[in-house]
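Follow-up to my earlier ticket, as requested here are the two runs.
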Amino acid sequence: MLELITRGNPLWNMIKTSVAFEYALPDGLPDNDESLIVEFLDVLRDYLDIAPDLHSVRENRDAEKSLAHYIDDLSERGFLVGAHVRHMLYVDGRGDPLAWPMLRVEVQLASHAVVADQAGRPCADGPSEEPVGKG
């Protein structure tokens, strides 16, 4: 399950702890939407590469703001950004396994997304007979 990303800070914190990156985006998009998404994913890849070298609060805050700008632009075009860090192990048979956190980022049309609570239950689109959080 992916966390809905609406600000740059949570995504930046995921980037800083990750050593690998995978992504997904919808097929059949207009060129201008696909270009924006690909540019955003390229920026994520670049930040993943340089995150260990950014030490100052200013550098980190600038990265967060840059990510927030893309997230806002995508939202204005009807897209949601979801992310998750999958904790994996790298095993090569020569030494101890190494932690291998992999960042998964997906950009999807909001109209096609299924929003769920933390337990994975889809959230209702309209009024429900049972209050949210009960049951």
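Run two:
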Amino acid sequence: MTTHTTRAQRARPDDDPRALVLPRSAAFRWSAIITTAFVGLTAVAGGIALVVGVDAELFAPATSVLADTVFRSFVVPGLLLAVIVGGTHLLAAILAVRRSRWTVLAVAAAAFVLLVWIFVETAMIPWSLLQAVYFAVGLLEVGVVLTGLGLLSDGGRR
């Protein structure tokens, strides 16, 4: 006699090989929380500074850097930075804090968003050290995801 399992019988995510599962490593969880919260909070703060028009070279470059772009002010880029970059990172941080099974996917998406943001930004405005720092953080987030998935391990047991 053949037995079949139903979805009700496979209620736990560990029983379903297709289910997304949060890596059990505390290092993954805390790395995900720290990197995504850092980027999320600074992206929201930076986006607000751009929208409000803070008059400090540290927070907002001169609008003259936008001369060869489609933008005439930093309002739209600031909103995109705060909502898209900051929002995806804060969502990933919240999911990591809550130990959601969607954390790995959220961190991967947030890293992708950050890296695309930096690529586009460097193509549109002059390069800055801050762009290099956030590019490195985006690569770090990719490394966190790959390590959490076990793709950067030496194959040994944890």
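The only thing I checked on run two: Helices lie at 26-52, 75-97, 103-124, 129-148. Let me know what else you need.
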